[in-house]
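Team,

Forwarding the record for the chain on the shared tracking sheet. I've put the sequence and predicted structure together so nobody has to dig through attachments.
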Amino acid sequence: MIKETIDYEIFKKHGHNRELVESNVMKIMRSIQIKNLLEYRPILVNSKMEIIDGQHRLEAAKRLGIRVFYEVKKDAEMSDIVLLNDNLKTWHREDYLNYYCTEGLEHYKKLNSFMNKNNVNVTTALVVLGRKTNGVDGNKSFKQGKFIFPSAVEEIESVKILEFSQQIIDYINPKLEGNHRYIHGASFRRGLYKFLSIKAVEQSVFMEKIYYRMDLIRPCSRVSDFINIFKMIYNFRNRNPITLDEFVQTL
């Protein structure tokens, strides 16, 4: 049964609600001002009046001073927050990470610790740890709470890749001509992480080849394009070039 009220104080924030995103609130407010359809999208709360879905709609209605429509689902559970937001595609990886850390899932807590120790975001951490972030299976598993943190040996290798990647950036930064801010961007770094994750790549050889073929480095719009550049650099006069199979697996 859908109810309505202008008493905004009866609603409580759930412990797993993410922080309000101001741009989302403003977008909803503009939409309401054009046509108020909140009646057709009631806020979902549990028996304690904790918001399971709709905190941004509530905030928008509160600022506009208009009625809130809501529905009480007594059997609503914490996991419903993840399910609803997953279906609506409103959560980012950081939101899922925070949720599962709060739930006490050890693999997510280890991931969070890895991020803090190495000063990287969740997407970068997943890439360098060898976990796909664009593939359907990898991303879906992460959002469903099925992420598995790699072994201690793999973690050490991941840290080495992060450190070596920074060495490469520091090396080429003063040598590239023109505007080369792109080498500090996410796409360049992720391409570098993915390429260096190929088992056949020898870091010393790659550094040597960069010296000779730095001219190949250029701005690109896609991670895969950067990986292709790194492959061409590595294979330059190389008796042990990266094979097509190894390269395709990385892409």
